[in-house]
Each structure stands twice: as structure tokens, then as C-alpha cells.
User: Fold this.
Amino acid sequence: MTGPGEFAGMPLYSKEEKTTMYSEKEKVAMREFDTGATRDTDEGKFDYEGFLSPPSLRRYAEYMHEHRTQADGKLRDSDNWQKGIPLVPYCKSMWRHLIDFWTIHRGIEIAGITKQDALCGIIFNAFGYLHELEKKRWDNIPDGTGIPITDKQYAALTKRHQ
Assistant:
């Protein structure tokens, strides 16, 4: 039987980690719905629904889908970029898209490129760059916690291994 803080009978975190993950207020603050169901509050939690824009994400997905066809005509997997691209190509490509966006923003048309295309190119490269940085943190998750190390912990870890 699985209880709170467990998955398949295994603890998700130690008692020490559990107490440091939540403040005293979060431990006791509960909400009850009209149905009688209870849930802790969403205070202090990420609001993905509020942070993201469905129309913008849809446009980004359209852009990404349009760019899945490779030069050889084959269709690459949608998550192909997650296999890893070095930071320098991401940065150089992001600058090219930024210049395209800036040029169009200034009222100069570029054949075949829309402002939205340029913005999606910037987003892809920024997201890919961020993905590569975050992979380093997530690859160093302490066993059993499911929580990535902080940037400060990662800096200390890499400093020790240099």
C-alpha cells in the first residue's frame, strides 16, 4: 500500500528532506472543496497554467513541426533536440533569429520569415540552451529525492571534480 510521500511503497524523500521542503504554514494550510475533497493549498507552487500562453505554445508547436523535415527529406523526432546540442550552436542560432526579429521589428521585411517565425527560433534556441544547462542539474539528483541540485550545489560539485 502506498502512503503519502511514497511511490510504489518507496519513500520519495527522507523525513529530513520532507521537513525542509515545506514550511510549517504549508504543512497545515488545507483547502476543502464543495465535494468534501481536500487538498493542500497551491500557495508557493508553480502556476504553469498562468505562466504559459496556449496560443503562443500552439504557434511554437506549429513552428517546431514545420522544421522537423531535415535537409535529406526525413522527418526527425519531435524531441530530437533533447539528445543534446552544444551551447555554442544554440547561441549563434539564437543571435541569427534575434537579428531577423529585430530587422522585421524595425519595419524591414525578410522574404519567407515572419516576426512569429523569428520569435519561435529565439524561443527554440533559448529553450534548448536552458535545457542543456538544466540537464546538468537534473543529472546530479541525489538518490531518492527526485529534486535536482541547486545551481550553487552544482557549482560546488563541478569545482570539486576539476
About this structure: The two ends are 45 Å apart (CA to CA).
